[in-house]
């Protein structure tokens, strides 16, 4: 079953949007297989966002994602990686359609509420950075 890594960023947690965001993915039909409220250590933030290391906003990005608690999650379901990205909306909330998470709740590209893996390779890498195998549940034996 396809899995993705999603994370409510510090702005989303601060604005009490965890419940709304979780509800959207539950109602869509995806299954939550792992979740934790946590503060991200700087080294983990730098590794998670490693592909943006040369970007001018890298420092700002790391400062922001480590500025307060995040809600890290693993979700599973058919096409969950691409569908979750659609449900999140464009990276820059000014371009995100109404009805998407960023379209409904965000204004600026830095504080864009949620992160989601953009490919199967990213999902595998990001899940591995944030979760141990034993922290993920298995629904496959449910009747
Ligand atoms: P995310 O999906 O978490 O992946 C990388 C993040 O970089 C992206 O969301 C944005 O929040 C952030 N980002 C992209 N462009 C800029 C920018 N110009 N200034 C600050 N942050 C940015």
TrEMBL record:
Q: What class of enzyme is it?
A: transferase
Span-the-membrane segments of this chain are none
What is the reaction catalyzed? a ribonucleoside 5'-diphosphate + ATP = a ribonucleoside 5'-triphosphate + ADP; a 2'-deoxyribonucleoside 5'-diphosphate + ATP = a 2'-deoxyribonucleoside 5'-triphosphate + ADP
- What are the Nucleoside diphosphate kinase-like domain coordinates in residue numbering? 1-138
Please tell me where this protein is predominantly located.
cytoplasm
UniProt modified residues of type Phosphoserine = 122
Against PROSITE patterns, the record matches this protein to: NDPK, NDPK_LIKE
Q: Catalytic residues per the record? A: 115 (pros-phosphohistidine intermediate)
- Residues the entry annotates as binding ATP: 9, 57, 85, 91, 102, 112
Modified sites of kind Phosphothreonine? 91
Question: Where, subcellularly, is it found?
Answer: Cytoplasm
Gene3D superfamilies linked to this entry: Nucleoside diphosphate kinase-like domain
* Record's keyword terms, sorted: ATP-binding, Cytoplasm, Kinase, Magnesium, Metal-binding, Nucleotide metabolism, Nucleotide-binding, Phosphoprotein, Transferase
Q: What Gene Ontology molecular function terms does this protein carry?
A: kinase activity
Q: Which cofactors does the annotated protein need, by name?
A: Mg(2+)
Q: What Enzyme Commission number(s) apply to this enzyme?
A: 2.7.4.6
Q: What subunit structure does UniProt give?
A: Homotetramer.
Which family is this protein grouped under? Belongs to the NDK family.
Matching NCBIfam families = PRK00668.1
Biological role: Major role in the synthesis of nucleoside triphosphates other than ATP. The ATP gamma phosphate is transferred to the NDP beta phosphate via a ping-pong mechanism, using a phosphorylated active-site intermediate.
Q: Protein name, please?
A: Nucleoside diphosphate kinase
């Amino acid at each position: 079953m396809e899995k993705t890594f999603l994370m409510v960023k510090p702005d989303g947690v601060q604005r009490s949007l965890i419940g709304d965001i979780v509800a959207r993915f539950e109602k869509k039909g995806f299954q939550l297989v792992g979740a934790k409220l946590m503060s991200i250590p700087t080294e983990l933030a730098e590794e998670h966002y490693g592909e943006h290391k040369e970007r001018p906003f890298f420092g700002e990005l790391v400062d922001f994602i480590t500025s307060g608690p995040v809600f890290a999650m693993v979700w599973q379901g058919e096409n969950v990686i691409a569908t979750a990205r659609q449900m999140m909306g464009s990276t820059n909330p000014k371009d995100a359609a109404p009805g998407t998470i960023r379209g409904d709740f965000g204004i600026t590209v830095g504080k864009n509420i949620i992160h989601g893996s953009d490919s199967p390779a990213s999902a595998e890498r990001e899940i591995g950075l944030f979760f141990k195998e034993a922290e993920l549940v298995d629904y496959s034996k449910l009747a």
